[in-house]
Amino acid sequence: MAILVTGGAGYIGSHTCVELLNAGYEVIVVDNLINSSQKALERVQEITEKKLTFYKVDLLDKAALDNIFQKENIESVIHFAGLKAVGESVSMPLEYYHNNITGTIMLCQVMQKYGVKDIVFSSSATVYGNPETVPIKEDFPLSATNPYGRTKLIIENLLKDLYVSDNSWNIIMLRYFNPIGADKSGRIGEDPKNIPNNLMPYITQVAVGKLEYLGVFGNDYDTHDGTGVRDYIHVTDLATGHLKALEKLNEKPGVLVYNLGTGKGYSVLDMVKNFEKVSGRTIKYKILPRRPGDIAICYADPSKAKLELGWETIRDIDEMCEDSWRWQKNNPNGYND
Ligand code: NAD
Ligand code: WQD
C-alpha cells in the first residue's frame, strides 16, 4: 500500500517524501512541475537511497489521475499540490481558484471512485486572517484577505462537507505557519522561480549576492522592534507532522484540524540577526513601507497537535537559519545549478 503525495516535488512535499521514505512508506508523487523541478525528486531518492514513483500529471487531468489510481495500490493521500503566491493570486484569481479548488475536487472525485477516503490537506495559517489575539488556536474565527487564502478556506469547507455527506472519509487539515529551513543534506530546499516573496529565501539570496538588499516591510508595527512577527517552523519538523497525521488517520477519526507551528514568534529583524550570526554574512536591509495585507503578529498555539498527534517541533531558529543557508550556499541557483 502506498501514499500518494500530490505536489511532492515542491518545497514541503519533497521534504515530506524524505521523511516518508525514511519511515518505510511506499511513495507515489503526482506533480505537474509548474513550480518545482524533477531534480528535487532525484535528490530525495539520493538522500534516502530509496525509490519513489513519479507521475508528471496535472490534477486537472482527471483521466490521467484515474489511471494512476487504477494502476497503483493507494492507501491515503497527502495533498500539497496548489499555487501559493499571495500577490500572484490577486492578479490571477481565476487561475488560483481553478487550480487549487477544481484540482482538489477532481482529486476527491477520483479518490471516491476508488474508495480511497483518507486525506491530509495542506491548509495555512492564512485562514485566520488578522487574528485578534495570539497565540492562535484552531477554533479562532476564520477569514481570508486574498484569493489564495480564500482557496484554502473554500477547500477546508469543501472537505468538511464531503465528510458530512459520507462519514467514511477521514480528513486531517494541517494549518502551516511559516516553513523555512531545508534538509540537513543541503541537497533539497526552497527554490523560488522568480524573486522570492517570502522572507527567508529573500535573506538567503541577499547572502549569496543574488539580491542587493532586503526590503523590510514596515518598522512601525506594534511589536518589540516594530517589524512583523511570525512563527517560523523548520520544514523537516513540518514534514514529520504529516507522518503523525497519517498515523492518526489509521484511527479513522473523521475530520480534524491542527496548527503546525512552534508557538514562538520572531520579528523580521530577529531573523536577520539570527541569520547573520549562523552564516557569518552581513545582510544589507532597508526599511520600506508596510506590504499591503500584512499583519503585525502571527504565531500558533501548537498544543492540540502535541496532545492529539504526539507531535512537536524540535529544531530551533538557529538550526532553521543554518539549514536554509547550507541549501542556498551549496545551490546558489537552486536546482538549476
Ligand atoms: P510548492 O509550490 O513548492 O509546491 C507545490 C507543488 O504543487 C509544486 O511542486 C507544483 O508544481 C505542484 N502543483 C501545483 N498545481 C498543481 C496541479 N494542478 N497539479 C499537479 N501539481 C501541481 O509549495 P510548498 O511551499 O511546498 O507548499 C505546499 C502546500 O502547502 C501548498 O498547498 C501551499 O499552499 C501550502 N502552504 C505553504 C506554505 C508556505 O509558506 N510554503 C504555508 C502554508 C501552506
Ligand atoms: C514574513 C514577514 C513580512 C519578505 C506568507 C503567506 C501565507 C503563508 C506563508 C502560504 C512579514 C516580512 C517578507 C520581504 C519582509 N503561505 N518580509 N521583506 O506573509 O507571513 O506569509 O507565507 O500559505 O499565506 O501570506 O510570510 O515570508 O512573506 O513574510 O520584510 O522581502 O517578513 O512583512 O512580516 P507571511 P513572508
Sum this structure up briefly.
The chain is built from eleven helices and 14 strands.
Provide a descriptive summary of the structure in words.
It is globular, with a radius of gyration of 19 Å. Helix 1 links the parallel strand 1 and strand 2. It starts with a strand and ends in a 7-residue tail after the last helix. The chain has eleven helices and 14 strands. The protein is α/β, with parallel strands linked by helices and 337 residues long. The model has no long low-confidence stretch (mean pLDDT 98). Helix 7 runs parallel beside helix 9, helix 7 packs across helix 11 and helix 9 packs across helix 11. It has a seven-stranded parallel sheet with strand order 3-2-1-4-5-6-11, with helices on both faces. It binds nicotinamide-adenine-dinucleotide and UDP-4-deoxy-4-formamido-beta-L-arabinopyranose (WQD). The site of nicotinamide-adenine-dinucleotide has 28 residues, from helix 1, strand 2, helix 5, strand 5 and strand 7.
